[in-house]
Structures are given as structure tokens and as C-alpha cells.
UniProtKB/TrEMBL annotation:
Residues 1-231 form the ABC transporter domain. It comes from the Bacteria. Belongs to the ABC transporter superfamily. This is ABC transporter ATP-binding protein. It comes from Noviherbaspirillum pedocola. One of its GO terms (molecular function) is branched-chain amino acid transmembrane transporter activity. Keywords: Amino-acid transport, ATP-binding, Cell membrane, Membrane, Nucleotide-binding, Transport.
Amino acid sequence: MMVLDSACVQYGLARALHDVCITASQDEIIAIVGRNGAGKSTTLKSMMGLLPLSKGKRLFQERDITTLPVEQISRLGVGFVPDTRRIFPNLTVHENLRMGALAHKPGYWTIERVLEIFPRLQERIGFGGDQLSGGEQQMLSIARALLGNPKILLLDEPTEGLAPKIVDELIDVFVQVHRLGTGLVLVEQNLKVPMRLADRQYVLDHGTVAWSGTSKELDAQRDHVESIITTGVSSEE
Ligand SMILES: Nc1ncnc2c1ncn2[C@@H]1O[C@H](COP(=O)(O)OP(=O)(O)OP(=O)(O)O)[C@@H](O)[C@H]1O
């Protein structure tokens, strides 16, 4: 279980997160949703240990990891797929995967197995990273993160800007990865993808959790939650 407990994050004097509490366990898919600037990427980076907390704690498997460097948090079993995708443009798909395998930890995921769930990458195995479509680059970035055999995988806007067919393929992969034992934390700007696969959602607004609940609760309060995402909490008051 990964926990952000009353986490506050500052960029200089500007407050980006205030008292954010989030839990994500290995046996669930959670989504963090909010519009531009709500604090989603900051939350994900805070979970990964890429940003220091000015107050609050982060915990992983009941261990306080608030001051652990990101490399150690990664070694404990937390994977990260940034929105920038971070693949090597001048290396082939296979070489990119071999680079990912350098951080390989024993577990289910091997290069052969990630190529099985991403047949498009198998077809493009000799292509350079810069010859791939946006969707294929996203698949490569996710495949590389899986090679670290994370217990929990954090994904920053993994479906942003992708064609509906590719989004469908990614959703199938997320479901399979989750069934094979990895917890997922997805950041998204709206509820479309989360509604299709997340167990629970957190809605962020102005750096705080404005709403959280299960998918069933979300179904019952869909209009209210949509209005928080599109217009913010203050307009609700
Ligand atoms: N490196 C930074 N330095 C200063 N302020 C930052 C920095 N990164 C983010 N911010 C600010 O922190 C707030 C939260 O940003 P964050 O990127 O976490 O939001 P987001 O919900 O992920 O938005 P987006 O969907 O646009 O990525 C915003 O006001 C943003 O301008």
C-alpha cells in the first residue's frame, strides 16, 4: 500500500498541494482526476519521491519513506511512467527495452512478456524510438516501466492525445497488468478512462482532494463530480 498522508508540497513560496491524503494498494486501480493545474502531476511525483513534502508523510508498505530518495523508492517496488514518456529516440524498440531491463527486478515481466501484451512493439522491434507513433511511444514507456516489476505503477496522463483505438488497447493492457498483481495509479484530466477501469477516484482541485469515492459512488454523484472537475469546488459553494 502506498499512502500520501496530509501531504503538502511547495514550489518556492507557491503552495501546490495542501493536506492531500491518498491511498493506493497493490490490488486496485485508482485514478487521480482534475483539470489543468489541479495538482495531479505534483501528487504523482510526490508519491514517487521526486518532490519533497513540506508537511505530511509518504508511506509504502507501512514504512515511512518520506525522506527516502527516489532510487530507493523505485527499488522498493514503485514504478513511474511520466507524461513525457522518456524513451530514447535514437535507440530501437528492442534497445529501449534492454535499457529498461537494466533496472530489471525478478518478477513476472520480462522483455518477452511485455512484447506479448504489446504486439505492436513486437512488430516495430527494429524501429527507432523516433519512428514510433505517440501511442507506440506510450506503450514502450509503459513496457519499460513494467520491466522493473513494480508492485505499484504510477502513470501520468497515459492516454492523453491518443486515438480512441489506442486508448482501448491501453485499457486492455492496464486490466491485464492489474490482474497479474500490479496496482495502478492513473492520472487523467477527465473521468472517461477512469470510469472504465478504476476502483476508486480522487478528484483534485487547487491542490486539495475535492472529492473521493468508489466508482459506484461516482456513478451516483456523476454530475456533481463532473462540475467539480470542470468548474472547481468554489462554484459549488
Ligand atoms: N516546477 C514548478 N514550479 C513552479 N510551479 C509549478 C511547477 N510545477 C507545477 N507548478 C504549479 O503547481 C500547480 C499544480 O501543477 P501540476 O502540474 O501538478 O498540475 P496538473 O494537475 O498535473 O496539471 P496538468 O494537467 O496541466 O499537468 C500549478 O499551479 C502549476 O503551475
